[in-house]
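Field reference: "sequence" (input) and "structure" (output). Example, Arabinose-5-phosphate isomerase:
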Amino acid sequence: MSDCTSFPSLAYSSGPERLVALGRNVIATEAEALWALGNELDQSFGHAIATLQQTKGRICVCGLGKSGHIARKIAATLSATGSPAIFLHASEAVHGDLGALHEADTLLILSNSGSTRELGTILLRADHMNIPIVAITSARGSRLAEAAETCLFLPNKAEACPHQSSPTTSTTMMLALGDALAITLMRLKGVTAATLHSFHPGGRLGLDLVTVESFMHRGEQLPIVATDVCMQTVVATMNEGGFGVAAVVDEKGHLEGVITDGDLRRHAHSLRGAVARDVMTRNPHVLFGGMLARDALEMLSDARITSLLVMDAEDERRIIGLVHIHDLLRLEIG
């Protein structure tokens, strides 16, 4: 029986520098191909975007083998960025899954050779249903290229595999093109962070896309005082709120300034007989409606403070809420 533990030492006998060089060569090969892909991108990309953007149904991303794995990831990225998509396995499609295709859909087909046997039936079905096809392929004269409404051709670059048999460089280019399509569509559709959060309510990304309105304190919870109230009332309001801050507003309810624990310490010698306007800090740091929780955390950290008022994005002097550092910690943001 062979000793499996000898394998790492055999590999390492090539020398660590040699192993690193081999890894770097693979990355360099694929990076060069990506540079060529970007440099050669032409108006076909714009045509592909137009076709995908006009899709009334779903974008059905189809592939087989390694291209199929990439197609599945592209479908997931499209859906996650605002373009409804499904993955259609080319082999399963010819065994019943073609029923998933609707006339309002668009096919995005990935095939390096453009001549995969299973594609023939799919292309015939698409033609029968008048479904537009966007293709990603290296083969300009292939059946896929001829059937597609728009073709995104991959540059003729060597695979990173030394035997030129395992798809490596070609699938990397396919993945990059898929990302380019998805993000371009996302920008054209004006997908906002709030919309992304609705697609990603869970996990780390979901937390990163939470807006301050979703967890801020509001209404009667807000420690608000008028400009002319005595400091005894200000201190009582701050203690009751428990945020270490009081917002000072004018007769219209517009923000004039804030009073923090630090302001109380700095004015300790002159608090007797003072009113809120005498002690408050003008032009305080604030958040605005629609800002993300991660932005709130960054602002709190940079300013070295524990609370921030949230202002109406359309009326910059109207207070709509308050965020405390503890709120962010409870959300595990940071």
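The radius of gyration is 30 Å.
The longest strand covers residues 255-260.
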